[in-house]
Specification:
Length: 428
């Protein structure tokens, strides 16, 4: 095993030192798939289904714009890594100490609450497929298994597993969308921007929510883990990023089609939260039989477990870099972060303490803090990327142009509106 790991490291180093190949760049695609698979969770599937069930195809255009916005955000994060040879945490630190206060508090509270949420989401399809154990037991098993996998496997294996999971998600969801026979005329009409009455918040959520989490800041770390560490890899990174979010866009559109054709036309309402996917499972069983419904549960599981693996790896890297940067005062690349005590601590933090919430639920005050801090993260990411990518911290040739600044500006404005709405909802 040691020889295999050593050879993987050597090959990564050689890949980093050599120029990207002129052909076969499609074969290198991977970090973007990891970021996209992590960002699309069970909650995103429910939100997209509900949008389709309430407004049919009318918000299809919002899903497309959402993917374009995510491409700009992920590209900006990775471009900073490649252009500067440092990390997002180095960039945030250069903006002032206020970033460490916000990010440090956010990542601790977020990890504690998200750990319980993610384990519960993964347990739902497992409990439905194998009702031999209660939901909380499947949740614990999911969390522990994913933590062990991340702790004992290097990036190459992690990426390969994520590719398999997103492949399962994609084939099953797109397959179901084809089975329900989409109305192509209505779908084309849905590409024309309209905002039906009562759909404003759903529209903003569809643009900003699906595929957009803290793991977008992890994309640059996964790019570095792939062996892409210099500006020479910028073109490959952009291809990787675009392909990943085009796949995400097709995936989201497929879920919207399922919602429009199966729920909107029949006026079927889903439960809120991840359990809404179990409602869809029952609808699928009534229409297509138990095989298709069970297959959908497998896709539900692949979606949920890919989010766990991605967060357990990516956000642990962010935390390890935070400790290295803001506490120890060290700077540099992300090399070796997964071997640090901080990385292992955050894996523990995501997995073990949140198990308490599986029994007792989330205390009201914790929900308020979690919601408020989480609402501010995406505006924080978009605005700091604009700041960093237009400053002297980045070599002139890799600073943002009008298109990147425009898309990041739209993203910032969008997430500020979503943030205000979230805060108002929390206060109310």
């Amino acid at each position: 095993m040691a020889d295999v790991n050593t050879s993987c490291n050597v090959s990564a180093e050689r890949q980093d030192l050599s120029a990207p190949p002129s052909r076969g760049q499609w074969k290198l695609i991977g970090p973007g798939i990891v970021a996209a698979a992590t960002g699309v969770g069970a909650g995103d599937l429910v939100a997209t289904l509900i949008a389709g069930s309430r407004f049919g195809y009318a918000l299809l255009w919002a899903a497309v714009i959402g993917c374009i916005v995510k491409i700009a955000l992920a590209e900006g994060s990775a471009r900073y890594h490649l252009a500067t040879g440092s990390t997002m945490l180095d960039g945030w630190r250069s903006l002032g100490r206020w970033t460490s206060w916000y990010f440090g508090l956010y990542i601790i509270v977020w990890g504690f609450v998200y750990g319980a949420t993610a384990m519960s989401a993964t347990a739902l399809p497992l409990a439905a497929l194998f009702p031999i154990l209660p939901l909380w037991a499947w949740a614990m098993i999911s969390g522990l298994a994913c933590a062990a996998f991340v702790a004992f496997n290097r990036y190459e294996m992690f990426e390969n597993v994520m590719k398999v999971l997103i492949g399962i998600m994609f084939v099953i969801v797109v397959g179901v969308a084809i089975m329900v026979v989409p109305n192509l005329g209505a779908a084309v009409t849905g590409l024309i921007p309209t905002i039906p009455e009562g759909s404003a918040i759903y529209t903003l959520g569809l643009i900003g929510g699906v595929g957009g989490t803290i793991t977008m800041a992890s994309y640059g770390y996964w790019v570095n883990a792939k062996g892409w560490r210099t500006p020479a890899w910028m073109g490959v990174m952009r291809l990787d990023n675009r392909v990943a979010y085009i796949v995400t866009g097709i995936f989201v559109i497929a879920m919207l089609i399922i919602g429009a054709e199966m729920l909107y036309t029949a006026q079927i309402a889903l439960s809120t939260g991840d359990r809404g996917l179990l409602d869809l499972d029952r609808v699928l069983e009534e229409r297509f039989g138990p095989f298709v419904s069970k297959l959908f549960l497998v896709g539900f599981f692949a979606t949920s477990v890919s989010s766990i693996l991605g967060v357990w790896n990516g956000v642990s890297l962010l935390f390890a870099d935070f400790v290295r940067n803001h506490i120890h005062g060290e700077t540099g690349t992300r090399e070796g972060l997964e071997k640090t005590p901080a990385f292992r601590f955050y894996l523990f933090w995501l997995t073990i303490p949140p198990m308490v919430l599986l029994y007792f639920g989330r205390p009201f005050l914790l929900v308020i803090i979690y919601g408020a801090l989480g609402a501010f993260f995406m505006p924080f990411l978009a605005l700091t990327l604009i700041w960093l990518l237009n400053s002297s911290r980045v070599p002139k040739e890799w600073r943002s142009g009008w298109l990147s600044n425009g898309l990041l500006g739209i993203a910032a404005l969008l997430f500020i509106v979503l943030c205000i709405n979230e805060v108002i909802g929390l206060v109310a």
